[in-house]
Design brief:
alpha/beta, Rossmann fold, 7-stranded mixed β-sheet, two-stranded antiparallel sheet
């Protein structure tokens, strides 16, 4: 086993002794800021769920289960940690592509630990933000953002976007990595809530996989759709035309593809008249 890890580059071997290189140790150490432990722990639940793929393909799937991701509380914390690892690298580039401009008040729906909100605030000193997420997630966000010294510019609101209305009065809304866990009907309902939360002229930006019209590209989105098949009750990945149609059904206009998708960095915008 140790020799196999050497071959994989996770260990070094010299004179029959093994040691972990510093750059690898930083990724594997739980307390490291670059730790991949949240991603590893998230994969534990995924491994179990993927074992049911054969049954799902043969017999279909029970669509009566609760909405959203099918994860327990400990998996949820791992999920939020994993999203933070990803967002810490992606967020500055995503915000630069969005170009928040003169936006004054951001609503980050399902904002997790606040990585994207932080990137927006860093890019726009005059911007203030509201993060809306489940109570347990808001507690995680509060601890993280307090240490970053940002709570004076951020309002944390606990709620469930499947059940509750969203805080109102915003001119920019971010829906990041959410729509893939929903059915088309669930997304339209969520878009309608966001529409009501925005001021006239307000802008919604969606970050997610944005598929080709035949759903075969990008490859990462194709396989992610299979993941949604096994871990959600009705989720999947959507093409630009499908996203546009759903947004227009909810009242949005001037729907536009800001950035094509390569690794769940596709960006779609729509405006409230």
């Amino acid at each position: 086993m140790l020799d196999a890890l050497v071959t994989m580059g996770l260990l070094d071997k010299k004179e029959e002794k093994y040691h972990c290189p510093a750059e690898v140790a930083s990724l594997l150490s739980k307390g490291s800021p670059t730790s991949i432990m949240p991603m590893v722990m998230l994969s534990v639940g995924g491994w179990k769920r993927w074992s049911g793929l054969t049954v799902i393909i043969r017999h279909g799937k029970d669509r009566t289960r609760p909405t959203g991701l099918d994860i327990n509380e400990s998996e949820q914390e791992a999920f939020i940690g994993a999203m933070q690892v990803i967002a810490s690298k992606m967020a500055p580039g995503i915000v630069a592509a969005i170009k928040p401009g003169k936006a004054k008040k951001l609503l980050d729906i399902g904002g997790g630990s606040g990585s994207y909100t932080q990137a927006f605030l860093d890019a726009s000193p005059g911007l203030i933000a509201t993060i809306f997420d489940l109570p347990s997630v808001i507690n995680l966000a509060q601890r993280r953002l307090a240490s970053a010294g940002l709570l004076d510019r951020i309002k944390l609101v606990a709620g469930d976007f499947y059940k509750d209305e969203l805080p109102t009065g915003h001119d920019l809304a971010l829906l990041s990595a959410i729509i893939h866990q929903n059915s088309p009907e669930q997304n339209i309902e969520l878009y309608r809530k966001i529409f009501r939360a925005l001021l006239p002229g307000g802008r919604l930006v969606i970050r997610d996989h944005v598929m080709s019209s035949d759903h075969t590209q990008p490859a990462s989105g194709v396989f992610f759709a299979v993941n949604m098949l096994v871990v959600t009750s009705g989720g999947g990945t959507y093409s630009f035309d499908e996203i546009k149609s759903s947004l227009e059904s909810a009242g949005f206009i001037k729907v536009n593809l800001i950035q094509p998708d390569q690794r769940m960095n596709g960006l779609v915008e729509g405006f409230k008249p």
